[in-house]
Amino acid sequence: MVQKIIDRYRGKGFKLTPQRLAILKFLEGNTGHPTAEDIFVEIKKKHPTVSFATVYNTIQALRDRGDLLEITIDPERKHFDPNPSPHHHIICTDCGKIGDIFVDYSAALTLPDNILEEFTPTGNHIDFHGVCRDCSTKQ
Amino acid sequence: MVQKIIDRYRGKGFKLTPQRLAILKFLEGNTGHPTAEDIFVEIKKKHPTVSFATVYNTIQALRDRGDLLEITIDPERKHFDPNPSPHHHIICTDCGKIGDIFVDYSAALTLPDNILEEFTPTGNHIDFHGVCRDCSTKQ
DNA sequence: TATTATAATAGAATTGTTCTAAACTGAGAA
DNA sequence: TTCTCAGTTTAGAACAATTCTATTATAATA
């Protein structure tokens, strides 16, 4: 898996440093929707001197490449999703856990005429809200 | 309109101050999805000594009453919507303008089984992305 | 291996939001 | 009409997430 990441990122104006490799390893296949701090804490285990700036710089570089999406669902902080294929999310209103929903609802999401006069739609993202099993059994 | 606001808010543990009345007047029927700063700037015209804390306090009080919704669509700052009936939004990816969409798509938004095993859904909100007419003619 | 453009680092700065403590005031009671 | 006090306003400090800056370090290529 590490080799796959190396092959994918080496060259192309993307300097593959040990810190970046650690971030990429952490993100690869990660469906936990980590925040910048989650990434920072994880990378710090192996690279104790890493700085927040490195995490944010790398996040930015990956976003520019289209390999990382910023999720605007939690009003307190940004979450990131290494799966760049468009999908939706459900967030637990109790604990904030986020799940992925790989369904394309676009065909059903027709917009009213007054909106179509004012906007040319280019995409959509649905935030489902709900309560996760852990939280509903907890009480 | 001012009298309507006064009738609606007086009493009920909600102290109707001049600052609050100005905020309520600004929000009444406002479909511009203002930020806290937008509200602050507006109120300051008539109440030059108003503080940000007052704006945030009042926002919080209105949210607690269910009269104001926080919109999590702009990663940079919170926007607020005085229309508490559930609806969706479309945001211009260029200038950030936000439009309201009063369509209930819920019947079409069926969730996959693996999600329903993990979450009990309680609601949904769609962020449409697009380009507004001003921005598309501008270039 | 030397060169150079790019990245990492520590820490300061910035931005949006919340908190604090003291002074003030709207609304009901007297 | 005045009194009273819980709730509100205010200035400014505090806070948290993120971005910026200047310096040092290093990966990738020649």
| Total tally of structural domains of chain A | 2
Strand order of the largest sheet of chain A: 4-3-5
Oligomeric state of this protein: homodimer
Unreliable sequence segments of chain A = none
Tell me which protein chains meet in the greatest interface and how many residues each side has.
A-B, 37 and 37 residues
| Overall number of strands of chain A | 5
**Strand content of the residues of chain A, in percent?**
15-25%
Taking all Cα atoms into account, the compactness measure Rg of chain A is 18 Å
| CATH class call of the largest domain in chain A | Mainly Alpha
What share of residues of chain A is helical?
25-40%
H-E string of chain A: HHHHEEEEHEH
Mean pLDDT of chain A, to the nearest integer, reads: 94
CATH homologous superfamily annotation of the largest domain in chain A? Winged helix-like DNA-binding domain superfamily/Winged helix DNA-binding domain
Number of helices of chain A: 6
The separation of the N and C termini of chain A measures 41 Å
